[in-house]
Amino acid sequence: MDPLDALTEIAYLLERERSSRYKSKAFRTAGAAIAALDPAVLNDSVRLKAVPGIGDSTFKVIQQALAGEVPDYLARLRADNGPKPSELRGKLRGDLHSHSEWSDGQTPIDAMVAAALRLGHEYLALTDHSPRLTIARGLSAERLQEQLGVVSSFRDDGFTLLSGIECDINEDGTLDQSDEMLQKLDVVVASVHSKLKSDPAVMTKRMLGAIRNPHTDVLGHVTGRLVEGSRGTRPGSTFDAAAVFAACAERRVAVEINSRPERQDPPDDLIQVALDAGCLFSIDSDAHAPGQLSLLDYGAERAERMGVPAERIVTTWPLADLLAWTGRNG
Predict the structure, then answer these.
(1) Would you give the DSSP letter of residue 287?
(2) What is the model's pLDDT at position 155?
(3) CA distance 50 to 6
(4) Quick one: which of 13, 134, 296, 314 is 20 to 30 A from 48 by CA?
């Protein structure tokens, strides 16, 4: 197989399984190193090994690919590739929650777009973090304005990169970005990232404030819990779920089904409450690297198992319907 394809797929699958970012970066670096390499160098093992960015593992992958084999490293990753796509997964047209290196993502925007195209997405919302989340290099209004110019360059026939933000919900229920900037965006995901142990009444009031904000489209990872993974575990926040999801249904704010296996948020019991309340849903990857866009497989499997109707999942909607729902005209 083509060695560049092999290196790229390995990086993609390492990102999907949320492996160390240094591992996936090593394979992407090696791919960049050989992309414009003279074939004479690529096929000369001595000269190839001396190329900056080629290490022992990536060298072996390249050699096996050049020999017409599926590299061992790639074969192992393919064998353990998560759940098989569900029927619902095939109905998803896009993803409303993703990050790039502009905040705490691992790669440039173009790499996220390339992965979205590979998955057959019709649209992807770029939702880097807002200023309050300094640890994630949240975007100031000035940086967000600059990003809007970059996002617009990726709109083409058959695919649209939507402008967006994952906006922090402040403790008083307001959103962590100016109204002037929020009204310029295609999609706004509002999420709580701090003080998850707040009193339920306090957390409920905080979430209701964000839901009632006219700019909010999606309520992101609603409890903030972690159930597995390298970051450890933490319990989710507690709040009046009936009140929160009733407000989401009334305002037509979609409840995110976060596809990251370490989140599995909302829990099954809260998905049921949201279903009973008549909520819309958005199945999102919350991807921080290209390979993580395919985590939609996990979210779709959960939603299908919980009996969430496809027509109530906004990410199954055509782009025109989606933008009509968010109140933007694209």
Answers:
(1) B
(2) 79
(3) 20
(4) 13
Of the candidates 9, 1, 29, 180, the residue with the CA atom closest to the CA atom of residue 78 = 9
Beta strands across the sheet bearing 254-258: 94-95, 123-126, 160-168, 187-191, 218-219, 254-258, 281-284
Cis peptide before 83 (omega within 30 of 0): no
CA end-to-end span of the chain, whole Å?
A: 40
State pLDDT tens for residues 50-66: 999 999 999 999 999 99
What gap in Å lies between CA 40 and CA 75, rounded to an integer?
27
Cβ burial of 25 (10 Å; 0-12, 13-18, 19+) is: middle
Mean pLDDT of the chain: 94
CA distance 167 to 175: 6
Task: Kindly indicate the confidence band of residue 12, based on its pLDDT and cuts at 50, 70 and 90.
Answer: confident
Cα separation, 22 vs 42, in Å, equals 24
Three-class secondary structure of residue 311 per DSSP: helix
- Crossing angle of helices 241-251/268-277, nearest 10°? 50
Structural domains of the chain sorted by starting position, each given as residue range(s) with its CATH number in brackets:
3-79 (1.10.150), 89-326 (3.20.20.140)
Pick 83 or 312 by higher pLDDT.
Answer: 312
Contact 7, 58 (CB under 8 A): yes
Instruction: From 35, 31, 2, select the one nearest 14 (Cα to Cα).
Output: 31
CB 160 within 8 A of CB 330: yes
List, for residues 194-252, the tens digit of each pLDDT value: 999 999 999 999 999 999 999 999 999 999 999 988 788 999 999 999 999 999 999 99
